[in-house]
Amino acid sequence: MIKKGEEINSFLDLKNKKIGVAGGSLDKSWLFLRAYAIKKYEKDPLTFFKTSFAAPPLINGLLRNNQLDAGYNYWNYTARLEALGYEEFLTLKDILPYIGIEGELPLIGYVFREGFVQKNEVTLNGFIKASNEARKILKTSDNEWLRISEMTGAKNQLMLEKIRDGFRKGIPSDNHQLMRKNIQHAYEILSQIGGEELVGSSSSLASGTYWNK
């Protein structure tokens, strides 16, 4: 995210700029950005930028106080900045296809042990069903967003709409075959960039990691 009117038109314009990055040096979005820049420009953002890792709210605050030139943040925080007039400069939707990930890639999910499924299948299926139904409601009902507006932290109607629209864009489809393929490829990219510090000795995703029924 950059301020509207900022003279940044290309990734190369970010050289030696102060960039705030959400999470830490092993955050997946940051590693995807590194993979993209190394492949496209032969530049590693780790040294090409003046990078500061921080919590998402802090990045937004530093950007608004002109202490950063750009911010690389999570979607729900970029939505807040959009409502304040900031512009998206480079997004994961730009990055992922260039590094070979076409179509959907879920960035968050639920983790559970295989043994838990065997003992609590009814509970797990009920949870997944409720989660899917909640997403359907939030995808189709603007009134529901008004009802939960206080929980989102939105300071005005425009900010709520940006958060709502960002959430809806991220709702995955039921194309599990494509998602499984993309998750596997994403893991390989992350393991190459993040190395053993991120994935240990597992250079590929273990069989059975992706679960669907």
Helix coverage percent: 40-55%
CATH class wording of the largest domain: Alpha Beta
Question: What is the CATH topology assignment of the largest domain?
Answer: D-Maltodextrin-Binding Protein, domain 2
SSE pattern, N- to C-terminal = EHHEHEHHHHHHHHH
CATH architecture of the largest domain: 3-Layer(aba) Sandwich
Distance between the termini: 38 Å
Helix-strand category: mainly alpha
Number of helices: 12
Mean pLDDT: 94
| Major sheet attributes | 3 strands, parallel
Portion in beta strands: 5-15%
CATH superfamily of the largest domain: Periplasmic binding protein-like II
Number of strands: 3
Which terms summarize this structure?
single chain; 12 helices; globular; 213 residues; three-stranded parallel beta sheet; 6% strand; mainly alpha; D-Maltodextrin-Binding Protein, domain 2
Describe this structure in words.
Helix 4 packs antiparallel against helix 10. By secondary structure, this protein is mainly alpha-helical. The protein contains twelve helices and three strands, in the order E-H-H-E-H-E-H-H-H-H-H-H-H-H-H. The protein has three domains: 88 residues, Periplasmic binding protein-like II (D-Maltodextrin-Binding Protein, domain 2), CATH 3.40.190.10; 58 residues, no CATH class; 41 residues.
